[in-house]
Amino acid sequence: MHITPAKARGVGLFEVLVSLLVIALLAALTAPGLSRMVDRNRHQAHLSMLYADLQQARAMALSSGHVVRLRLFSHPGGSCYVLHHGAAGSCTCDGEGQTQCMSDAALIKSHWLPQSTRLRLAGSVTQLAFHPK
User: Fold this and answer.
1) Which residues contact residue 92 at a Cβ distance below 8 angstroms, ignoring those fewer than 6 apart?
2) Looking at residue 2, what is its pLDDT?
3) What is the CA radius of gyration of the chain?
4) Which among 8, 52, 85, 133 is most buried, taking Cβ atoms within 10 Å?
5) What is the largest CA-CA distance in the chain?
6) Residue (of 56, 30, 57, 46) closest to 79 by Cα position
C-alpha cells in the first residue's frame, strides 16, 4: 500500500486565501476604470440621441414646411429637451420630466436627463428653431 504525504494531497487553506486576496485586489483596482467606462458609454449614448434628434428636427422642418423647435429646460432634479411644432414657448418640461404643450403645439419628442446621470443640458440659448427654408 502506498501512503501519500500530507503536503501532496491538495490545495491548503492558506493558498485558497492568498488566491482570494489576489482576486479581490485585482477587482478593487479595475472597478473604478469599469465605472468610468460605463459612465462614458452612457454619456455617449445620450449625446448620440441628442445629435439624432437635432437631425430629425431639421429633416422634419424641411419635409413638412413647418418650423420645428427644440427647447432646453434645466431644473434642480435634472434637465430635458423638447422637440415640437408650434409657437415659441408653447411646450414645457417640468422638474420631473413631464412635458406639456398648449393646444396650438404638437409634441414630437421629449427627453429627460435626471440629475443621477450627472449630465446637464445647458446652452447659450434656450431654444433652437429649424425653419423649412
Assistant:
1) 71, 73, 82, 99, 100, 101
2) 62
3) 27
4) 85
5) 97
6) 46
Could you identify the residue written with the cell 428636427?
57
Which residues make Cβ contacts (< 8 Å) with residue 77, sequence separation at least 6?
Answer: 95, 96, 114, 115
Residue-wise pLDDT tens digits, 29-41: 887 788 888 888 9
Cα–Cα nearest to 69, from 88, 53, 55, 52? 88
Mean pLDDT along residues 7-22: 82
Q: Quick one: how far is CA 5 from the chain centroid? A: 59
Q: What is the pLDDT of residue 3?
A: 63
Residue pair 64/49 in contact by the 8 Å Cβ criterion: no
Q: Which residue has the higher pLDDT, 9 or 78?
A: 78
- pLDDT value, residue 4: 58
